Amino acid sequence: MDALPYRTSATDLSDDELVLFDAFWDGGTDVDLLHGDFFHEQWNLGYKHSLSEEGVRETIRSLFGRGLIRLWKKPRRERKRMCVELTRLGGEMWSAERCPVWSRWAEESHPTTRRGKHALQLRALSHDALQNLIEVGTEACLWELGNARTRFRRIANYRLVAWAPARELHIMYAIGVVEDSDLDCDWELFERKRLFWRGVQELQKILETHGPCA
Length: 214
Hints:
Blueprint: H1 15-24, E1 29-30, H2 36-43, H3 53-65, E2 69-75, E3 80-86, H4 88-98, E4 106-109, E5 119-124, H5 127-139, E6 149-158, E7 167-175, H6 187-193, H7 200-210
Antiparallel strand pairs: 1-3, 2-3, 4-5, 5-7, 6-7
């Protein structure tokens, strides 16, 4: 298990509270998935909190009482489940500790079209981050665009999460992509040339190499 990521210590969040925030900074989640038995497998952060099951419940109550998270119940077949997400104040505190470089955020997803064809969707909060993801992912053989049909679009004033600053979202969508499971991926090259981040561990390298920027 890796050591905990660097933090600025600009807030009064405990290390365990901050690790919980790392799991759901970008969207709501089921509180049950934050418990120790599920945490590492579910979130794959490379590190985890030290809280017991009761400790997680107590921490959630404390964070709610301080106005840092929002709780709601989502119904499912067996029972209603408790879900959690950051409030604006919680997001601001997470940002003060982790220093997200929004212009370098990017992600990929692999949807399937209605006709069952493989697709690739890349999203980034800047044109440069999208281009880097396309180039590095292609060179490292995470995917093979080949004769895939691609299209690009931009969305102005997009907020990745409600409390994050508005930026321009850049999207590439490609149909007919060869998936990485059929390719020999070069993860060392991918990591060496990557200038974007998808989660806190990757963000750490960006901060160490380039420092915080807009």
